[in-house]
Design a protein that fits this description.
With about 240 residues, the chain is of the alpha/beta class. Helix content is about 50%, strand content about 15%. The protein is built from 8 helices and 11 strands. A 4-stranded mixed sheet has the order 7-6-9-8, with no helix packed on it. It has a 3-stranded mixed sheet with strand order 2-4-5, covered by helices on one side. A two-stranded parallel ribbon has the order 1-3. A hairpin with a 2-residue loop joins β10 (about 150) and β11.
Length: about 240
């Protein structure tokens, strides 16, 4: 199941894959977010399903407190479907944190030398795609299931980050400026992953102390472990172009 977001629509418009008053053919496996539908509507782009049916986009919104409104206020945004929430809602904060983490990974990729660090750039691409997928699992409610990052499952990620001397011949260390820019970049991503995990906990926690999406919280926890692992791999010269 793939997700079509507002950002995806803007990219299609910018690259001229779509133009105002065009038709977007949606497959059964695509979920179009409300904000994407709103942009389609703004650009007079029709959405046609595989069955050839034109999808009508309702401009009626509902709020969590039961109110129905015809226009979306600027201080509110989509939660799911046509449900609007205030922009300081914990779930919106979580989506913003994911967006920030994703954009920082992309920024660091652009700062790396393509010839000197091709494998590191490639590994970060796998990571950014994984981070982006978390929004899909949150919006659709689908379970994340078992996952791997750079060939390591959740258990291996934990083990490698907890016992670096076993796998990389390097003990745990506190990053500082002497370790160089690459370690500084990866450490920044590690701290952002931690911050995102805390924001996610606020979004998914229940009154009784349990969490609604432990799978997403686990993924973010292992993500911060992964950035430690990438630091160890860099210090072990595994990212040097031979």
């Amino acid at each position: 199941m793939s997700l079509v977001t507002e950002d995806d629509v803007r990219k299609m418009l910018a690259s001229h894959q779509l133009k105002p008053q065009d038709t977007f053919h949606a497959s059964p496996k695509q979920i179009i977010t409300p904000s994407a539908k709103e942009l389609f509507n703004e650009k007079n782009i029709s959405i046609i399903t595989d069955e050839g049916k034109k999808e009508e986009y309702s401009m009626t919104y509902e709020t969590l407190f039961g109110a129905k409104i015809m226009e979306k206020p600027e201080h509110m945004t989509h939660l799911r479907g046509n449900i609007l929430v205030f922009k300081d809602h914990p779930m919106i904060a979580f989506r913003g944190a994911i967006d920030s983490l994703e954009s920082t990974i992309i920024l660091i990729q652009t700062l790396l030398d393509d010839d000197q660090y091709p494998k590191l750039i490639q590994d970060l691409e796998e990571v950014v795609q994984f981070v982006h997928s978390l929004i899909k699992f949150e919006i659709t409610g689908e379970p994340l299931g078992e996952f791997q990052l750079l060939g390591l499952d959740a258990k291996a990620l934990r083990d490698h980050s907890h016992h670096p001397s076993k796998y990389y011949g390097i003990s745990h260390f506190i990053p500082n400026h002497s370790h160089g820019m690459i370690v500084a970049y990866l450490n920044k991503l590690r701290t952002l992953a931690r911050e995102t995990e805390l924001v996610a906990y606020q979004a998914f926690k229940k009154e009784e102390g349990l969490v609604a999406r432990e799978d997403i919280l686990t993924a973010l926890n292992r993500l911060s472990s992964l950035f430690w692992i990438m630091m160890f791999q860099y210090m072990d010269h595994q990212y040097e172009e031979k």
